[in-house]
């Protein structure tokens, strides 16, 4: 198979892990460029790790890469995706919640031959959910428990009288649809957006969010009732250096990239 040229948009906790692992060498993949909000800081990191990779503008990605991995703040989703999709390229999107608010990007990919790939990320069971969606899914509900620090800064709390950092016991801070959660927690709950896209959509996928000072991991439980199976799935993710993101997220992206470049694919 031909080598796939990979660009990374964003060198935060996930982007740095990807850059390091790709630079070490993964068959069929080549890191060709990166983009970051702070170019000097990005170049310093790459230089310190001995990674030969130019830091470029997002608009330069289509000329250099076959696939871009979006590890940027959700507000940058359009800037990462649009140039690649307009060129018929692939984009791997971590800010899945942003896709619920920008369906035009999906239509752009469909119209011009590009592709948006959403990795499993910090979730589990998406293979089973996508399989069940080929039949009939009656309901999908997700319950998320996170340490309060992992929810700090979410727009949802701007007009709410909730002081997350003084909580002494678990508090359910949100219940609603995946679409509503994507708007209120754009940097915290890409997992429920991925679940919604895999299953019955953002308006029928329900989520409860708990700020829980008794947990140290980002915990997600999923209940699916379908004509093919009834599922209950639970995962507890160890946070990365960014408390909003689990360590498994970067590993999930690496696994997805290997699938893109591999002659053997495991899973739906």
Question: Key terms for this structure?
Answer:
alpha/beta, Rossmann fold, Dihydrodipicolinate Reductase, domain 2, five-stranded parallel β-sheet, five-stranded mixed β-sheet, 10 helices
Task: Provide a concise account of the structure shown.
The protein is α/β, with parallel strands linked by helices and 268 residues long.
Description of the molecule:
- With 268 residues, this protein is α/β, with parallel strands linked by helices.
- The protein folds into two domains: 4-122 and 248-261, Rossmann fold (3-Layer(aba) Sandwich); 126-244, Dihydrodipicolinate Reductase, domain 2, CATH 3.30.360.
- 34% of the residues lie in helices and 24% in strands.
- The protein has helices at 13-24, 39-49, 61-64, 77-86, 96-101, 103-112, 126-132, 178-184, 190-198, 247-261, and strands spanning 4-9, 29-35, 67-70, 90-93, 115-117, 137-146, 171-177, 205-211, 218-226, 230-237.
- The strands form two sheets. Strands 2-1-3-4-5 form a five-stranded parallel sheet, sandwiched between helices. Strands 7-8-6-9-10 form a five-stranded mixed sheet.
- Helix 1 packs across helix 10 and helix 8 (178-184) runs antiparallel to helix 9 (190-198).
- It is globular.
- The mean pLDDT is 94.
């Amino acid at each position: 198979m031909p080598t796939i040229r990979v660009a990374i948009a964003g060198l935060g906790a996930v982007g740095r892990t990807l850059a390091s692992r790709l630079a070490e060498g993964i068959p069929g993949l080549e890191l060709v460029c990166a983009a970051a909000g702070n170019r000097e800081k990005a170049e310093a990191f790459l230089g310190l790790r001995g990674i030969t990779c130019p830091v470029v503008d997002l608009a330069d990605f289509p000329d250099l890469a076959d696939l871009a991995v979006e590890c940027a703040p959700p507000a940058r989703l359009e800037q990462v995706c649009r140039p690649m999709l307009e060129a018929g390229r692939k984009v791997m999107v971590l800010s899945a919640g942003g896709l619920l608010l920008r369906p035009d990007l999906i239509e752009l990919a469909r119209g011009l031959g590009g592709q948006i790939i959403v990795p499993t990320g910090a979730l589990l069971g998406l293979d089973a959910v996508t399989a069940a969606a080929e039949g009939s899914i009656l309901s999908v509900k997700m319950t998320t428990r996170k340490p309060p620090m992992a929810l700090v800064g979410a727009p949802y709390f701007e007009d709410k009288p909730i002081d997350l950092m003084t909580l002494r016991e678990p508090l359910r801070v949100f219940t609603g649809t995946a679409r509503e959660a994507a708007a209120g927690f754009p940097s915290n709950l890409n997992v429920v957006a991925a679940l919604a896209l895999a299953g019955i959509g953002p308006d029928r996928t329900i989520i409860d969010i708990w700020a829980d000072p008794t947990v140290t991991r980002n915990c997600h439980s999923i209940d699916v009732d379908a004509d093919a199976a009834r599922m209950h799935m639970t995962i507890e993710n160890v946070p990365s250096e960014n408390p909003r993101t689990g360590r498994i997220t970067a590993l999930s992206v690496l696994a997805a990239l290997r699938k893109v470049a591999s002659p053997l694919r495991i899973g739906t």
